[in-house]
């Protein structure tokens, strides 16, 4: 098997053996600071990477392997690693959600994640502490399936990320500035493809079929992918195989992944361009800066001319309601939950994000340990008022209504699961004329991250069949840091039988003086003194700010 990464990432599918033996895929990563401009025309900034260089190493494995991430933290702050999209069945403590599923890795110490790979598909790994994803701690994770129903002659990975000229801490300070003098968009992001400013070249052989894995490692913008003169056939979304769906363009929000098959033309008469376009409604257009586009080459022959791009490059929303997963009839809901992804103000005038006007704060004790504390683990308040926890029973089907009335969209990600997308509509459409629902005889699209556009709602369903503690949050890094998070505590009674926390996880907490039992503050009874406890957010800015304005 041959893998190439950097300007080009190609897997020769024909080289994958038909008989595959499970193995340990070991990655030894020192998490370090790297000052770099990533090859862009901008001043260098301090980023977070692995082994002192960008881009990070790409991880390839096969379904049935065990992924071992040996992490040494050389930063001056804590870190964790989240393998995005993996269910972590019975290993919720390796999910990487700091103070939810584990204590963080402290500076100067090491920690190992050992994750059985029971899924196949397109995933990624990123930092889940201190918004280190924003500053570059992210890389693709490709899990191959020897029995994949979709065959191809080769494959390419297109991992797209935004690289801002400033660090996350700088943008966060601007977001929390109550004077109105700071602009977090003053220095917009640049675009990187597979860690570089230039798009890789695709070499096509006439008549062959290629799989292209699209991975959005963005922290904020959306992006689109299209190839001149070629159709894209969607076959996988967020690690779940789909029924084939032909499109001209694929749009992705942060954290989403899509695999497409592309059939090469039968002749070498021309080469073609493909296009990666970064955009978003959060920033007015800046000519030559934003939106931005990188074009790559689909090469059939070094002697062939480049076919001209005819007309406008296609652009359209991702049609989630028009794509079916390969398996899975629509679930029948047992109960429903409502989540209004909205923002509001604290009395000091700072603006925060929230679900239902409850802005998230980390508990003093990781929620996984509270869930494993008998006698208090069934009561949501045990996890703290700012954790916004919901306790689920084993195998109940939860329907969630996501609601977004704010100016920005929200890519909402659920750890430990995929959910079925069963309905979409517009908040102000009181008659339901524009509502779309999945027919009862269809298999709803399943994914782990759904984009809820401004002014829209989305209804999803999932089955609580994975005992553990799972974070749900907006995958805009800004919104996550500003509190758009909540926690599902799934089947805590069953957790006590199947979740056995390794000593290495407990030791990380002991190093930091963090309790590994009890409620939000480590008490064994219903005493929450000292727990993070903020007032519900205000819809409008406090009067003192309004009068100052």
The multimeric state of the shown protein is single chain
Which shape, going by the Cα principal axes?
A: globular
Rg from alpha-carbon coordinates: 23 Å
How many distinct beta strands?
32
Structural class: mainly beta
Head-to-tail CA distance between termini:
63 Å
Report the average pLDDT across residues: 93
Can you describe this structure?
By secondary structure, the protein is mainly β. 7% of the residues lie in helices and 36% in strands. The chain contains six helices and 32 strands. Strands 1, 10, 11, 13, 15, 16 and 18 form a seven-stranded mixed beta sheet that branches. Strands 21, 22, 24, 26, 27, 28 and 30 form a seven-stranded mixed beta sheet that branches. This is Ferroxidase fet3.
Condensed summary:
7% of the residues lie in helices and 36% in strands. With 549 residues, the protein is mostly beta strands. This is Ferroxidase fet3.
Keywords summarizing the entry:
seven-stranded mixed β-sheet, mainly beta, 549 residues, single chain, Ferroxidase fet3
Topology of helices and strands:
Layout: E1 10-11, E2 24-36, E3 45-50, E4 59-62, E5 66-73, E6 81-84, E7 110-116, E8 121-127, E9 138-144, E10 154-163, H1 168-175, E11 190-193, E12 202-203, E13 209-216, E14 222-227, E15 232-237, E16 240-247, E17 250-252, E18 257-263, E19 272-279, E20 292-299, E21 335-345, E22 351-355, H2 367-371, E23 389-392, E24 397-404, E25 410-414, E26 419-426, E27 436-437, E28 446-447, E29 449-452, E30 456-463, E31 468-474, H3 477-481, E32 485-490, H4 492-498, H5 503-511, H6 543-548
Parallel strand pairs: 2-5, 4-9, 10-13, 12-20, 21-24, 23-32
Antiparallel strand pairs: 1-10, 2-3, 5-7, 6-8, 8-9, 10-11, 13-18, 14-17, 14-19, 15-16, 15-18, 19-20, 21-22, 24-30, 25-29, 25-31, 26-27, 26-28, 26-30, 31-32
């Amino acid at each position: 098997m041959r893998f190439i990464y950097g300007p080009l990432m190609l897997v020769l599918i024909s080289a994958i053996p038909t008989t595959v033996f499970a193995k340990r895929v070991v990655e030894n990563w020192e998490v370090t600071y790297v000052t770099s401009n990533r090859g862009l025309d901008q001043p260098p900034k301090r980023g977070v990477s692995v082994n002192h260089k960008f881009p990070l190493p790409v991880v390839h494995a096969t379904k049935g392997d065990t992924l071992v991430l040996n992490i040494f933290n050389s930063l001056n702050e804590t870190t964790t690693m989240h393998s995005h999209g993996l269910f972590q069945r019975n290993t919720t403590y390796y999910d990487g959600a700091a103070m939810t599923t584990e204590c963080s890795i402290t500076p100067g110490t090491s920690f190992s994640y050992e994750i059985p790979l029971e899924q196949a598909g397109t995933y990624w790994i990123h930092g889940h502490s201190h918004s280190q994803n924003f500053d570059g701690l992210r890389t693709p994770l490709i899990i191959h399936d020897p029995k994949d129903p979709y065959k191809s002659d080769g494959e390419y990975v297109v991992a797209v990320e935004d690289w801002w000229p400033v660090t996350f801490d700088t943008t966060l300070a601007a977001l929390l500035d109550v004077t109105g003098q700071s602009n977090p968009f003053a220095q917009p992001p640049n675009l990187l493809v597979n860690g570089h400013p230039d798009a890789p070249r695709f070499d096509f052989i006439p008549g062959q079929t290629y799989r292209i894995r699209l991975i959005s490692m963005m922290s904020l913008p959306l992006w689109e992918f299209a190839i001149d003169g070629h159709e894209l056939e969607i076959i996988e979304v967020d690690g779940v195989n789909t029924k084939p769906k032909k499109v001209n363009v694929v749009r992705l929000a942060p954290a989403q992944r899509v695999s497409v098959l592309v059939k090469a033309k039968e002749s070498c008469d021309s080469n073609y361009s493909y296009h990666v376009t970064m955009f978003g409604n959060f920033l007015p257009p800046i000519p030559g800066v934003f939106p931005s586009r990188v074009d790559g080459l689909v090469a059939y022959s070094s002697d062939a001319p480049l076919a001209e791009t005819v007309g406008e490059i296609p652009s359209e929303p991702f049609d989630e309601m028009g794509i079916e997963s390969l398996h899975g009839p629509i679930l029948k809901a047992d109960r429903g939950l409502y989540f209004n992804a909205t923002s509001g103000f604290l009395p000091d005038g700072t603006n925060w994000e929230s679900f239902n006007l409850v802005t998230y704060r980390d508990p003093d004790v990781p929620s996984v340990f509270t869930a494993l504390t008998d006698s208090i683990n069934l009561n949501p308040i045990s996890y703290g008022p700012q954790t916004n926890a919901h306790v689920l029973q084993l195998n109940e089907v939860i329907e969630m209504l996501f609601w977004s009335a704010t100016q920005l969209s929200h890519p909402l990600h659920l750890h430990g699961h995929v959910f079925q997308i069963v309905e979409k509509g517009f908040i102000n459409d009181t008659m339901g004329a524009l509502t779309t629902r999945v027919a009862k005889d269809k298999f709803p699209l399943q994914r782990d991250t759904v984009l809820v556009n401004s002014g829209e709602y989305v209804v999803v369903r999932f089955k609580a069949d994975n005992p553990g503690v799972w974070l749900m949050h907006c995958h805009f890094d800004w919104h996550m840091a500003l509190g758009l998070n909540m926690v599902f505590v799934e089947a805590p009674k069953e957790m006590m039988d199947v979740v056995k926390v390794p000593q290495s996880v407990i030791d990380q907490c002991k190093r930091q003086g963090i309790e590994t039992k009890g409620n939000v503050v480590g008490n064994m009874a219903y005493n929450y003194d000292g727990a993070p406890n903020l007032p519900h957010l205000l819809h409008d800015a406090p009067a003192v700010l309004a009068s100052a304005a």
